[in-house]
Design a protein that fits this description.
single chain, Archease, Possible Chaperone, Chain: A, domain 1, five-stranded antiparallel sheet, three-stranded antiparallel sheet, 43% strand
Length: 146
Amino acid sequence: MSSQVKQYEYLDHTADIKFLAYGNTLEETFENSALAMFNVIIDTDKVSGEVERKVFLKSPDLESLLVDWLSELLYIFEVDEIVFREFRVEKIREEEGEYSITAQAVGEKYYPESHPFETEIKAVTYNQLEIMKTADGWKAQVVVDI
């Protein structure tokens, strides 16, 4: 099994932030997409892991599932004020024409004084969204509106 060194990279994009996330599996690609998104907001290396949130979602297709996954994490951040540092996607399944994700996100309560805010993300978009199977695994291209 080949191991990939790169987890994600940022690409130039005006007024938005665009990134590519990589993974040996689809699940790992979704984990790294969430990591890339949260590193736009905050330095995840400075976040502890005392809070865990379970996430289960269903969507009509894989692209919608990725947008819904990232949007749900963004919603938890905005409403419950939790910043995440680690993402564990247990399973992405296709069943009866729908996709589902079962995952956990690990982080801590957000305190502005201990976590300098980098950039605010308004939304995860479908703009230029792509999920591709590659020779090494998977990659996803995501654009977030800032």
